[in-house]
Amino acid sequence: MALFFLGFGLFAFLRPQKLRAAMDNFADAWKEGSWHPYKLPISALRYLVGGVGIAGASLFFYIAYVGFTR
């Protein structure tokens, strides 16, 4: 799980345009024209989504560390 979040966070930092396109296609499949985080500016999308991904990865790495040290 930690590696998934880390990969997602790094993908959001390195390729926010591709992330926006994927989220746009997914959101339009459900309800066309609805608000979704993909409508954020690229810089906000990069730091917000990437930061959440890396924070989630660090949380899961910490949980694994605590689990293995006990």
Structural summary, described in words:
- The chain has helices at residues 2-14, 16-30, 42-69.
- With 70 residues, the chain is mainly α.
- Helix 1 crosses helix 2 (16-30) and helix 1 packs antiparallel against helix 3 (42-69).
- The longest helix has 28 residues, at 42-69.
- It is elongated.
Distance between the termini: 20 Å
Helix-residue proportion? over 70%
Number of H- or I-type helical stretches: 3
Radius of gyration: 15 Å
Give the overall shape, derived from the CA principal axes: elongated
Unreliable residue stretches: none
The number of strands is 0
Structural class computed from helices and strand pairing:
mainly alpha
Overview features:
0% strand; mainly alpha; 70 residues
Task: Please sum up the structure shown.
The chain has 70 residues and is mainly α.
